[in-house]
C-alpha cells in the first residue's frame, strides 16, 4: 500500500534540488529546480549552493524572470536564499525563474506542502 501525500516526508516540495525530464512538442526537455544560497551573481549568471553543498551555475538570459524583490539577477545579494527553475540547453542550465526568498512549499509559505484538497487515503 502506498502512503498518502500527507504521510510522505521529504517530498518534492522539500527538495533542495531536483531534475526531471518532460515531454514537450514531441521531444524531451530536462528541467532543474534548486533552492539554496547565492554564492555569486552577475548580469549573465547566478551560482547557488544548497544545504547539502550541491552547487550549480545558471545562465541568465533575457527570458529569465526574477521575482520577490530585485528584478535584476545581478543585484541578488550573496547569501540570499533563492529558488531557481531552469531548463538544460546544450548541457547548460538556463534559468527560467529565480525566486528571491524562501520559495519552497510548506506551511511557512501559507501552504501545506501540496496536500490541500487531496482525497483522504482509502
Automatic annotation (TrEMBL):
Biased composition (Gly residues): 102-116
Amino acid composition bias (Polar residues), ranges on this chain: 33-42
Segments for region (Disordered): 33-122
Organism: Prauserella alba
Low complexity composition bias: residue spans: 81-101
Name the record gives this protein: DUF5666 domain-containing protein
